[in-house]
Design a protein that fits this description.
By secondary structure, the protein is mainly alpha-helical. Helix content is about 85%, strand content about 0%.
Length: about 80
């Protein structure tokens, strides 16, 4: 088992896979934290509901809704 572990540790493919997994984990944590920060205030939660209604009614596109939420969360 020890030799196999050392082989895997030194293998280039293993490093590439670990790098890919590490990148994915960091990005997922970042998404989670940014979303939590953006929606932590009552105002942001209310703004989200308003924007959801606008997007559902096709009065606004989802991209501009996200931009609006980013502006609101940046002011907190």
């Amino acid at each position: 088992i020890g030799r196999y572990y050392e082989f895997q540790k030194g293998a280039t493919g293993g490093l590439e896979r670990r790098t890919s997994v590490a990148r994915w984990r960091i990005l997922e944590l970042l998404r989670e934290r940014l979303l939590a920060r953006a929606l932590k205030s009552e105002m942001a939660a209310q703004q989200l509901e308003s924007l959801v209604a606008e997007v559902a009614a096709k009065d606004r596109d989802p991209y501009s809704a996200v931009e609006e939420l980013m502006k609101v969360s940046g002011k907190q």
